[in-house]
Amino acid sequence: MNFQSGGKFSFVEVENREEIELTKHTIKILPSLEVDEALMVDVNDFTEDEPLESTTESLAIGCYRQKPFLIQSGDGWIVNLLINRGKTEKLARLEEVIPVGFIAENIQDASAIFSYKSGIAKFLWMTLPEDPLFVVTYKIIPEIGQKLRDGSIEGYYSYMDYGSSIRIPVIEKDINLTNSKNRDLASIIEHIQKPESEKTKPVLPQKLIEPDPVNKTGIFFRIQIMAASKPIKGDSFFKSNNIQGHIYTEFQNGLYKYTTGSYKQYARAREHLLQIQRNSGITEAFICAYQEGKRIPVKRALELTNQR
Fold it and tell me: How far is CA 17 from the centre of its chain?
C-alpha cells in the first residue's frame, strides 16, 4: 500500500504566524513475511475502539498543590502536586516559582523532564502519563536555614487544547497526596471541584479596548486567539477564558482561526493583546494584519502604514 506524506511547518515572525507547505513524498508499505496472512488487517478497514467510560471524564483539568510539609529530618519540605490531565495526552508544562533562599530537587516526576533554574522548578511532558490523574513531587531545600512560609509558592500548569496553549494557576489545598491511590485522587478532586461546579466562573473585571468600526477595506490589525483543526461550537470556550468582544472565524490552510478586535493602530491592538494575555489562560495569542480583508505579514502592514 502507498501513502502520501506531507504537512505544514508553522512559525511566528514579528508576531505573525506563517506556514510553509512541506514537499510530499510517496511511502510504500510492504507486508511482513513473518506475520500470518490471516492476521493481517488492511489499514483502510481499521476503526478506533470506542473510548472506555471513566469516572474522571466529568472532572475539569486542574493542578492542586498539597500544602508543603517539613521532612522529619528537618532539612527541607516536601511538595506534592496532583494533576488531572483530562483528555489531553501530549505537551504539558508545570512551573513552580520557588522563593528566594531555597532550591528545588526532583523526587517523583511522572515521566516528565524535570529542571530547576533561576528559581523555577519545571516539569515538562512531551507525552503525558497514561493515568489521567497523577502526582509529582519535589523537595524544597533552604540554602541558609530559612523557613518556608505558607502560600509562598506560585505555580502554573500549561497544556494544549485545540492547538492553543492554556495556562491555569496551581491551587494550594489542605489535602493529603502521600501514598494516595487513583480512586483516592479522584475523590480528592471531586471534593475540591464540587463547590465550584455549582457556581458560574466569575469574569475578571476589565475594560474592553474598544475596537474601531468594522471595515474590511484598507489595513487593520486583529488578535488571533487560537487555531484548531475542528470548529469550536458556541462561545463557552471564549467566555470561560474571559475573552470579550466579537469573535471572528476564518478558515485558512486547513485550520479554523479565531480572532477578535479590529484596529487601524497597531498600538491599540497591542494593548488588547496584553489585556488578553493578562486576563485569560491563553498565552499564545498574537497580532495579525489584514489588507482589504486578506492576511498580510504584520511587518509589511507596519511599513505600509508608517507605524512601529
Answer: 18
Calpha distance 168→156 (Å, rounded): 6
Fold designation for 219-304:
Alpha-Beta Plaits (3.30.70)
> Which of the listed ranges 10-14, 77-81, 249-253, 269-273 does the model predict with the highest average pLDDT?
77-81
- Every domain of the chain and the residues it spans: 62-197, 219-304
Give the integer Cα–Cα distance in Å for 223 and 282. Answer: 12
Q: What is the pLDDT of residues 16-27, one digit of tens each?
A: 667 787 888 888
Task: Of 28-32, 42-46, 206-210, give the range with the top mean pLDDT.
Answer: 28-32
**Mean pLDDT, the chain, integer:** 80
Is the domain spanning 62-197 CATH 2.60.40.290? The answer is: yes
pLDDT for the residue numbered 77 = 92
Q: Global pTM?
A: 0.48
Please say whether the dihedral angle defined by the alpha carbons of residues 46, 52, 56 and 57, taken in this order, is positive or negative.
Answer: positive
pLDDT in tens, 153-177: 999 999 987 777 888 899 998 888 9
Backbone angles phi and psi of 239, in degrees to 5: -65, -40
Q: Who's near 252: CB < 8 A, 6+ residues apart?
A: 295
Would the CATH topology of 62-197 be identical to that of 219-304? no
Residues in contact with 92: Cβ distance below 8 Å, sequence separation at least 6, in sequence order? 85, 124, 125, 128, 157, 158, 159, 160
Closest CA to 189 of 128, 239, 151, 132: 132
Which residues neighbour 297 within 8 Å (Cβ) at sequence distance 6 or greater?
13, 14, 16, 18, 289
Instruction: Return d(Cα 202, Cα 182) in angstroms, integer.
Output: 31
Among 68, 116, 77, residue whose Cα is nearest residue 95: 116
Among 271, 167, 289, residue whose Cα is nearest residue 222: 289
Q: Which amino acid is at 69?
A: F
The grid coordinates listed for 122 are 519545571
